[in-house]
Amino acid sequence: MFKVETKATVIAHRGASAYAPENTFAAYDLALAMGADKIELDLRMTADGELVTAHDPTLWRTAGDSRLVSQLRRGDLVELAPELRPLTLDAVLGRYGQRTRYCVDLKPSQSQAERRLVRAIRRHRLRSNVVVQSFCEQSLRRVNELDRTLPLVQLLTDELSYEESARRLHRVADFASGIGPAAATVDTRLIGLAHSLSLTVQPYTVNEEAEMLHLLELGVDGIFTDAPDRLRRIVTAANPATSTRTPKSCQHRRRHFRRQADVVLAHVEMSYRPHAVRSERIHHHSVLGQRLTKAERVRN
Ligand code: G3P
């Protein structure tokens, strides 16, 4: 069925965000139940210096609240409904610990965000489990100055031409271990150059099976997806070493997270339940169930 063998990493983008509200325990639990190798989470810093999970600058899309995350304080967060409240990084790292690996996407934040991030990773003794990624090169360089051992991934937008990407790659190879390009910009030339510079290539965000297969055949090292169950199936089937059976410890871990996810999902909107997700196309939704246009999905 598959033309290639691959051990590509399954990265659950904002958790299993096709099926549960993004960047929540439900989404992360479900991702681990579905066999994701890593969970990706977006971080922003509040006015009083707490790192919390939030992709957009405001809470509008996820909680119907137009306030900026950067202007909130602990007291404001506590007042939000628990299922809509951004999680603290400490809570996420505390809950999953060594049981998974993390791609922490640091969104533009006030100064000190990098320092607080590095401190939290050290406090939880998770330096071997965390990759820090960002679109912002400066931010990654600051993390690198604070801790040379943390692996870093430079995210690249889809607006870059191959030549621009190539220039960036030569520069980021000084401090990063990988790149996260937009899937549409990935081809054998980009992968070849990245690998020649010892950079891994993990494109975002891919939900269609055909596109997953295409990228795996090109030789990517991992893929960000909202639907980790789909990618897990493909990667497992394409890897003869794992295609025959899932180890018992793995099955146990997945059952544990499935139970946890079910408990949380029981409290969220039905529109997020797996059976409600159309298989051919996945969109990011607001908590209120609205479908969002690409322009509304704020990148930074
Ligand atoms: O983590 C890669 C991917 O998350 C970057 O895109 O839109 O989620 O910030 P975005």
Could you characterize what this model shows?
The protein has 300 residues and is an alpha/beta fold. The protein has helices spanning 25-33, 60-63, 74-79, 89-96, 113-123, 137-146, 162-172, 188-196, 209-218, 228-237, 240-243, 248-265, and strands at 9-12, 38-45, 51-53, 58-59, 65-68, 101-106, 130-134, 152-156, 178-181, 200-201, 222-225. The chain has a single domain (9-277), classed as Phosphatidylinositol (PI) phosphodiesterase (TIM Barrel, Alpha-Beta Barrel), CATH 3.20.20.190. The longest helix has 18 residues, at 248-265. The radius of gyration is 18 Å and the shape is globular. The chain starts with 8 loop residues before the first strand and ends in a 35-residue tail after the last helix. The structure holds SN-glycerol-3-phosphate (G3P). Residues 13, 40, 55, 105, 133, 155, 180, 204-205, 224, 299 line the site of SN-glycerol-3-phosphate (G3P).
Task: Give a short synopsis of this structure.
The protein has 300 residues and is α/β, with parallel strands linked by helices. 37% of the residues lie in helices and 16% in strands.
How many angstroms separate the termini? 38 Å
Query: Largest sheet, described in full?
Result: 9 strands, mixed
Bound molecules: SN-glycerol-3-phosphate
How many separate structural domains? 1
The CATH topology label is TIM Barrel
Overall residue-averaged pLDDT value: 85
Please give the count of helices.
Answer: 12
Q: Kindly report the name of the CATH homologous superfamily.
A: Phosphatidylinositol (PI) phosphodiesterase
* Structural class by SSE content: alpha/beta
What is the radius of gyration computed over CA atoms, rounded to a whole number of angstroms?
A: 18 Å
Label the CATH architecture.
Alpha-Beta Barrel
Taking pLDDT < 50 over at least 5 consecutive residues as the criterion, the unreliable ranges are: 270-300
Strand content: 15-25%
What is the top-level CATH class? Alpha Beta
Structural shape: globular
Strand element count: 11
Q: What letter string, H or E per element, gives the SSE order?
A: EHEEEHEHHEHEHEHEHEHEHHH
Helix content range: 25-40%
